[in-house]
Structure formats: structure tokens, C-alpha cells
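Appendix B, example 12.
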Amino acid sequence: MQFNKNLVLLSLLISFMFSGCATFLSGTYSQKVDPNYKIAPQDTILVTTNENDLDSKFYVNYVANALKNKGFYNVYRYIDTKLPPIRYTVVIQVYQKTKTYTYNSADYGYKWDGTVTTKCTKHGNTTECVKTRNKVYGIIGYSNKIGHIDGHYFIMNWYENVSKEKIFFAEGSTTQTDCTNDKLYQFLIDESIKRMNFQKPMDDKFTVQMPEGYTCR
């Protein structure tokens, strides 16, 4: 019986060693909706960017495929040569931004601990004593400081082509710092399009366990 228990423990240890550590990515998602428009899977959609936004242009294909995976089957890109009448134009944008914020925290240094050390030195018939306040390292006060947060963002603005009105807005963001830009933008595109719906406004925070073998690099 003891042999069987040891064998089970050994199997569990080997499984843990070769399974690796799971990768978790976190982000936020928000959307705003015009309730007067009902977007259907068969509607024609054009994915594009601002004219000189090269960073975002790199992800047009990725967004178009993600929308198809969402269930839209008439999705086109701005570079496609033959376009049918387009019902909705989706302008995408990816960007990185550093935000600053102010916070109050402790300041550290040396301060008197309330004790005194006396050291005496004898010079002939006289003795000279010097008293020294003992110091300890610790909190000496509090002050305001400036912090920095690096954020990655993915934005979609949907426009109805006839009225030219914006009918849908979505934004995905993350403050993860241990992944490349490309992996973070792909993560935001996937999670934003997965979560979007055209029923009501939304604000959502999420943490996702990535597939086995996923790498952030």
C-alpha cells in the first residue's frame, strides 16, 4: 500500500514539473451603444484605420478575422479591391500610453530611537564624555509621489455608412508589462470582440488563463 502511495505522489510531481506555469492575462473592456441600430451577422462591414496610422493598419487583418469568428460573414478590409455596398465602417486603433498618478507613501531614513550612548575618554586627570543619540532606520514621514502606469489599448468605432453616425464604441485595455506589444494587442482584440454585444453599455474587468504552451514573447 505504501508503494502505491509513493507511486501516486511521484506521478503527481512529474506531472507538475512538466506542466509548466499557467499564463494569466488581465484587462478591462467597455462599450457604448446606440440602441436604435440593430447590427446583424449578414451586414456588410468594412475594417479600416486612420490614414497614417501604421501601427493600427498592421492589425486590420487580425480584426477582420476576429469579427468573422464572432459570426459576421460579410467582413471586408480597406485594401480589398472589390467591395459591395458597405453598411458599417469599423475604424480601429491600437496604441500605447503611459499615465501618471499621484499617491502618498512613507519616506524612509535614519531617526533618533530615543536612546543615548555615552562614551567617555580620560585625558590625564580629566575625563571627557560625549553623548550620542542612537539612530534607527525607519519611517521619517509621508509625502506625495508620482507613479507611472504603462497601458495598451484597442479601440473600435463603428459608423453607419448612410447616416455617418457613430453607433458603437468599444475599448479594451491592459496594464500587463511582461508581454510584447504584438501579443498584448492580439489579446485585447480577441477579448474585446469576444465580449462585445449591441444590447447595452458595458464595463468589465477580466482575467483569462491562456492556452497551454502560450508565450508572451
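Residues 7-20 have pLDDT under 50 and may be disordered. The longest helix spans residues 2-19.
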